[in-house]
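Collaborator request, handled under Task 6.
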Amino acid sequence: MYAALKTELVDMKLLDGESGRGKSDELVRHVSSLFALTSEHCTDEQIYTYDVVLQRLADVVDVDGRAFASNKLCMLQNAPYGLMRRFAFDVIRVAGPVLRKSPVLSDQDLLDVSDERGADHMLAISCRKDLSAKVTDLLIHYAHGPVLMQLAANGRAQISQKGMAFLRQMAANDAKMAESLKQRQAQHDQLRLVKNPTSPLAQELNLTEIMRDLEARIPPDKLDLSLDPYLARYKFEASAVRAKDLEKKSRLNETSLLRYAGHDQFADVICGIALMSGISYKIIARMMSSLHWEQVLCLFKVMRFSDRLVSELLCCGPWKLRLSRNQCIAILKQYRQMSVEEAHAKVLLWSQNGIILD
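Structure tokens returned to the collaborator:
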């Protein structure tokens, strides 16, 4: 299959004429489905080939075919950029999924669409999980009612002081806008990064309290890392001192974790995460050597770790030995699809259901 990608996925000559149009809808569904299945293994050259082929197919298929491809590819991290940008300017049935979900679109792409297309496209953009203030300022400038309402309720959208002042002015005379801003504040509180266990949000989550209660119920042998064949060799006490020193210098952050993980400094990674989360390093070490990885993915998501950091963590310490490449790909995909709200809810259930430490 991959050898074929080096040349052409489709004989373009077959797409010429009316008979070609009859085949094109089937082809666009087949090619977009094939890319969705194999995208994680595609090289840049292969992705470029898909981009060229799918854009050519988009020239000749109807809205149904383009909408199928849009829905199939919109959430992929490495979706063909040219095709995604093209779809973003299409009719809203095609553009909607891409504008709401595609991670490959840039701020400039979103600004261009906002300038050139109508309110329906801007409403789709306002639903994105992450929006910069640069984009929201333009959306607010156009002042379409439903777009403003959606932005106000979107806790992940960054809104400038000027933009927020405009929305609050509207809210003074609009009960629905006031309620949307209230929803935004509730979402914003949930999505803040949990790094300081004494912060108001950490208090709200009761993360430290949850883990303290859990630790009291964990059998002592599970917390004796010297008994674990994967963990006994690490010097966690020395790493805990280094992590504390970094914290005092305000240098304990994702960048330092990336550096540690990249050099397979597992003990330093564990103690850094422990200090940032307020959870015992013994529990973090157990969680990050377990094959029950969903629970620690929830913690990573609540702490808003980037995909890049999670990818590095999967190749660090015991997981480097215990996880296959395909497992790492599947776990990273699961992490990308997990929402902060979902992770938050599952973490809160730990006090009731416990956690698995094997």
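The cover message to the collaborator said: "The chain has two domains: 2-191, 200-353. The mean pLDDT is 85. Please let us know whether this matches your experimental observations."
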